[in-house]
Amino acid sequence: MKKPKKRKSKNTAIKLKKLEIELKEAKNELEIQTWGLEKTNKAIKLLYKELEARNKRLRELDKLKSDFISTVSHELRTPLSIVKEGINLVMDEIPGEINEKQKKVLTASKDNIDRLTRIINNLLDISKIESGKIELNKKEFNVAGVITRTINLFKSKAREKGLELKAEYALKKINLYADTDKINQIFINLVDNAIKFTDKGVIEIFVREKKDEIECVVSDTGIGISKSDLPRVFSKFQQFGRVPGAGEKGTGLGLSIAKGLVEMHKGEIWAESELGKGTKFIFTIPKEKTRARSRSD
Amino acid sequence: MKKRILIIDDNEQDKKIMKRFLNKAGFQDISFAVTGEEGLDKADSEKPALVILDTILPGIDGFETCRRLRESKKLSGLRIIIITGSIDAVDAVKARKVGADDYCAKTSDFAPLLEAVAGLT
């Protein structure tokens, strides 16, 4: 009777030994896994810190660039306006009479000075937007008024190219709480762009009031933008599909500025287009403030 | 005198930077290998105190190189640091299992590496 009991206890001892070995192995494995996780964690923390430092450096460089542009632009504006004044003076024949040929040469010079001035002004605008130096002067206003102003501004330019320029809004009065001048600038840049790239047809402005935002559309029947170019349409100095010598040269900054101004209002801007058929630029401006105000009224 | 270090890495840029940092930390005796196989030969003949190993190498990878370094009876007491540009927890465990003493990230200042070699004199 004793023997089997002994064997039994021997079996138990072996089993225990086995378990002990297994446990040791598991503990070992756990230690290795812990070691691995600790090392990984340490490395990720370090890499994250490094990424943050690089990010900070990039932001500093970006600001430096913006400051540089704005300083240079200011410095350029003064001599440029003096040159322009000189040309105007000669063209008005104040220092003496000039002939038609001379006038033609001076007109070309003056056109290019105007273009240079536009580029500098745009550069200044974009550097201000990028460095966050522009402050929004928000108040409540009627978007319809801004659109009418934009249309009046471009009426003659559209007529010169034989284009129809019109606006359509569901409501006569669409109130928005935003910076009037900036919203006006967005419309101006979009309409200017539309006229530039449209040779025949219609340029139309739509405004729709939605639940939380106001959606504005500037559509044209122009040359359109190819699918591959569409993602870069708001990038600085991008100009697509331009026929050499066709129309007035742009600065390549109008749409970047429009995007910057829309985003300052926490809105969104995008383009939809089909080559040869036309382009739609759509932007939204949230109207939270207006709603909050009317609620408290 | 500080001990000999062998760096096994195929990235020229990384090798140059590591050498500069290690020189600054007082290690002048540094040799290089581009592949794991070359590294194994050099380790055998030069008997370094420390091997710095990249994970991704042409031919056998860093982990396999590490395992073979550990197998070599001639290299007892050798320290091995596996260093990588792509941190991965599975790789870290693998590094430990093939016998690495440390597993660290390649940062631009190679601070983790310097920390790992600090005790080596």
Provide a descriptive summary of the structure in words.
- The complex is a heterodimer of chains A (297) and B (121).
- Chain A is an alpha+beta fold.
- Helices cover 59% and strands 16% of the residues of chain A.
- A 5-stranded mixed beta sheet of chain A has the order 2-4-5-7-6, with helices on one face. In chain A, strands 1-3 form a two-stranded antiparallel sheet.
- The radius of gyration of chain A is 33 Å and the shape is elongated.
- Residues 243-247 and 290-297 of chain A have low confidence and may be disordered.
- With 121 residues, chain B is of the alpha/beta class.
- Chain B has a single domain, classed as Rossmann fold, CATH 3.40.50.2300.
- Chain B is 41% helix and 19% strand.
- Chain B is built from 5 helices and 5 strands.
- Chain B has a 5-stranded parallel beta sheet, with helices on both faces.
- In chain B, α4 links the parallel β4 (79-84) and β5 (102-105).
- In chain B, α2 runs parallel beside α3.
- The model of chain B has no long low-confidence stretch (mean pLDDT 89).
- Chains A and B meet through α1 of A and α4 and β5 of B.
What sequence of helices (H) and strands (E) makes up the elements of chain A?
HHEHEEHEEHEEH
Give the number of DSSP strands of chain A.
7
Q: How many strand elements of chain B? A: 5
Unreliable spans of chain B: none
